[in-house]
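Dear colleagues,

As part of the handover before I leave the project, I'm documenting each prediction I ran so the next person doesn't have to rerun anything. This entry is a single chain, and its sequence is reproduced below.
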Amino acid sequence: MFKNFKGQIIWSADGVFLEYILKMIDSGKFPKDVAIKLDRLFLTIYGLQSITEIQNRGVPVFADAKIVEIPSKSLELTKLHLQYQPWMLNAMADICNTGVTPSSDSNPENYNPDVLNDFAGLCKDAGTLSCAVTVLTSKTDELVRKEFGKSALDAVLFLSELAIDCGITDIVCSPIEAKSVRVLSSLTGINTPGVRLPESSADDQARIMTPAKALENGATRLVTGRDLSRDGMFAENYLKIMANIEGKVF
């Protein structure tokens, strides 16, 4: 449905009411080349039909389901989401960890790629971009080392290679790792949360960059929340983000 979408901005609509989103779109104040990310909590509260309600208004939806379950349940959850044809759907890249060993053991032998392969195939058949989440941008490098036994960069590269080999089209990583991921493959998209304007607080994010630096570092799309929706002034905030990207003083 949104194969020709070329926007660089994805609004993270965390903690927002569906009624508010629909009202903003219908008012004409929502930027036309911005997609919307709906997280698992939102989709649980408002139902998967909210994807259709928003996309019928011409706005692509990134279903941030972060699917992570045993293989049979993972694929059933994938099929359930794909019934609503989201523009993009994600799963955790380490969904194919067998669970026999701790997640900190990044030995490829302990990963069964079948579930990621099947996830990518189901998305492709449905016309939905398949996306794998590598390491959450809210995690510090220190925490990642404790979980994976390696740096955030090395963990992201390991999981990205795994996902790409399985036919995944998109990756989620922090902008700090985007440049290194970019050289791995011609992915459809590298989607980077942890994007903040220079004057903005990092909030709950640990590995961040400005919009301009994130794109320069290899990001395809920027996932941002408060910087776009602050005070409900989407159009004005969008211009600030674009001014940063274009190197203009706003």
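The CA atoms of residues 113 and 162 lie 8 Å apart. Residues 152-165 form the longest helix (14 residues).

All the best with the project,
I.
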